[in-house]
Design goal:
Distance between the termini: 46 Å
Largest sheet: 9 strands, mixed
Oligomer: single chain
Shape: globular
Number of strands: 11
Helix content: 25-40%
Order of helices and strands: HHEHHEEEEEHEHHEHHEHHHHEHEHH
Number of domains: 1
Structural class: alpha/beta
Strand order of the largest sheet: 1-11-10-9-8-6-7-3-2
Radius of gyration: 21 Å
């Protein structure tokens, strides 16, 4: 049964035109919304509190927890880690499982629900110098991550009877040029703090107030920012009120979160770090970063195909999500006064990387190798998931109009690391899980990061063999 909420294209051009107006104007449910949730509405997987360690490895934990949360989906069953890989070791066909025609996913008539969930949860691209209203219980902090580079963040500390407690701190990372003006981040931050977590909502290089205060510092699409995330973890764990750190990444930020898990285990000496690049990146502590776990939502796994697609003009009435992204790319190039602003992500990446402190001739292919997680033609990716030594959960939607869910199956089938699990839901669009099934989304997050009921990690096979 298809879950793309299709609209019959034969209804005529007038309907398509009306839908296009809705998308451009942010109407018909296609505008950002808040999805707050009361603390008491979160469902706990309390039965797992005293489970044996062997039953709390991430893949096993997901299977057991999903059985207890499945009723919150009220939909076709999701695909879990083992479903995504065939007995032969090859990736399963995700779209066949959900009876979806992938070519229809970017279209209004083929994926109304996925596009709506995406629009309601993605936020609006605003100028970095826009003032964001204060969040109750949060303070503005600046985190040093490199020489002369500080990241803007909002820090909320969990208090009991007015006294700051020692607790885990969850870092929330935005998506493509997103900042702390996204309602999703504010909603998540408030919920996590109400459940006893400290929360740090970070704005990366080139994002939000970090960009506004340091416009000369470029965004490198995960190349340098991956190390910044590890530096943020070290900054937090140096505080007496922080026990462990966790990480959540969305969209392109989800790609960086996956890389952070790999980089934590592989380090500068990993084969996917080119020698010339290695000499330009900073080193980090050997201890495990993000020991509370890493949650990854809607990664764009085969990002090179995504980059290629952005070289072609995308039409708002046919591929609204891609067209919106091209508008964001063009807006970014115009804001940074790059020559010949366009919707080309190739050009934007080249402009940003050439301004970065790690630039050298030949950086771009080395950067692609650093960020690649699955083989792309003759370009091979190392076993990045095999290096992950903390719990990691990848969450994707079958009706994602931007990051095809099949790519998550392609990725998860490359590794048997028990620390890494994945789930593909019938719906949720691109990062639109709160719009799709709010209670399930928040309950999964709280249970994953819970120190008593959440998953635990073991030394991954790749690390054990070193």
């Amino acid at each position: 049964m298809k879950r793309t909420h299709a609209i019959n294209p034969r209804t005529g051009g007038l309907l398509v035109a009306l839908l296009s107006v809705c998308l451009l104007a942010g109407g018909c449910g296609f505008s950002e919304r808040g999805f707050p949730m009361h603390r008491e509405d979160v469902v706990y997987v309390a039965a797992e509190r005293h489970a044996p360690a062997s039953q709390k490895l991430t893949r096993v934990w997901l299977e057991r927890s999903e059985k207890r949360l499945d009723y919150l989906l009220d939909d076709d069953p999701p695909m879990l880690t083992d479903d995504l890989t065939l007995a032969s070791g090859r990736a399963a066909d995700v779209f066949a499982w959900f009876d979806i025609t992938p070519s229809r996913l970017p279209t209004i008539w083929g994926n109304w629900g996925g596009l709506r969930d995406t629009a309601q949860s993605s936020g609006v691209n605003r100028n970095p110098d826009e003032v964001v209203p204060d969040w109750p219980g949060f303070e503005q902090v600046w985190i040093p991550v490199d020489r002369d580079v500080k990241l803007s963040a909002r820090l909320g500390l969990y208090r009991r009877d007015g006294v700051v407690q020692r607790a885990d701190c969850i870092v929330i990372e935005p998506g493509f040029y997103g900042g702390n003006n996204i309602r999703r981040t504010e909603d998540l931050s408030g919920l996590l703090m109400s459940h006893g977590f400290h929360v740090l909502a970070i704005e990366l290089r080139g994002h939000g107030q970090t960009e506004a205060s340091q416009p000369e510092v470029p965004y490198t699409f995960g190349l340098v920012e991956t190390g910044d995330l590890l530096a943020v973890s070290e900054w937090l764990t140096a505080r007496p009120d922080v026990r462990r750190t966790g990480l959540m990444g969305f969209s392109w930020g989800a790609n960086s979160a996956i890389l952070a898990g790999w980089y934590d285990g592989g380090g500068l000496n990993d084969p996917d770090v080119a020698p010339q690049l290695r000499s330009r990146l900073r080193s980090f502590d050997k201890h495990r970063h993000f020991q509370a776990g890493i949650m990854v939502f809607s990664p764009v796994v085969r990002f090179e195909r995504f980059i290629d697609r952005m070289d072609r003009p995308q039409r708002i009435w046919r591929e609204p999500a891609y067209a919106r992204l091209q508008a964001m790319i063009r807006q970014r190039m115009d804001y940074k006064h790059f020559p010949n602003p366009s919707g080309s992500l190739h050009e934007l990446i080249a402009h940003e990387l050439t301004r970065s402190p790690v630039w050298y001739d030949g950086l771009i292919p080395d950067a692609m190798q650093f960020m690649r997680t699955v083989d792309e033609g003759d370009a091979k990716a190392g076993d990045k998931l095999g290096r992950v030594r903390v719990p990691m959960l990848i969450v994707q939607a079958a009706d994602d109009p931007i990051g095809p869910a099949q790519e998550v199956a392609d990725l998860i089938s490359t590794s048997r690391n028990p620390n890494v699990a994945a789930i593909v839901l019938p719906g949720g669009g691109h990062v639109g899980f709160a719009a799709y099934r709010r209670s399930w989304f928040y309950s999964l997050i709280v249970n994953f990061f819970d120190a008593s009921t959440g998953p635990v990690a073991v030394p991954p096979p790749a690390a054990a063999a070193k």
